């Protein structure tokens, strides 16, 4: 994917992991130590705790993160606790989302059309969780939960609502980008995954619901 943009791993200054599950952090080893991998301290601690086991936190991935921990400049740990955000570079910051894992974070990016939130796995399926909640649809504004979490039901529900708050674009890892208005999904960008040139932070590119 980097090559499609004329880049190689050594060109990347920061890699921000929303959490350290195998399908997210499994490629960290591809980046040299000059690339700083970033995640929350709470997530690294949880990954090494063994609570979710090697199926979700692979030994090789966790060991690589620990190796980076003892390599100068190779790892950055965020201590966001829900009360504040940490800046990565101007216009890009992270906040604790929780819900999916105790240390899950969202990456917030300032754009001309509003804040874009790279929300990790807080939401898996926009249609079933937010647009037409198939389990919790009786109460207005109640999302259907993923069930794939290390947290309580209430903590996951709070995390989803937090992820929807104050942002214009939601970019979940396992679904297409969503356009938000007042905390509700108002549009989708269906071609974003297959097109590296998709304008994910351009509200006019979205198909309105």
Question: What's this, in brief?
Answer:
By secondary structure, the chain is α/β, with parallel strands linked by helices. Helices cover 20% and strands 24% of the residues. The strands form 2 sheets. The protein has an 8-stranded mixed sheet with strand order 4-5-6-7-8-9-10-11. Strands 1-2-3 form a 3-stranded parallel sheet.
Description:
The protein has 209 residues and is an alpha/beta fold. 20% of the residues lie in helices and 24% in strands. It has 5 helices and 11 strands. The chain has helices at 22-25, 41-49, 59-69, 126-131, 153-164, and strands spanning 14-16, 36-40, 75-78, 86-89, 92-96, 105-111, 114-120, 169-172, 178-181, 184-188, 207-208. The chain has an 8-stranded mixed β-sheet. A 3-stranded parallel β-sheet has the order 1-2-3. A hairpin with an 8-residue loop joins strand 5 (92-96) and strand 6 (105-111).
List the helices and strands and how they pair.
Blueprint: E1 14-16, H1 22-25, E2 36-40, H2 41-49, H3 59-69, E3 75-78, E4 86-89, E5 92-96, E6 105-111, E7 114-120, H4 126-131, H5 153-164, E8 169-172, E9 178-181, E10 184-188, E11 207-208
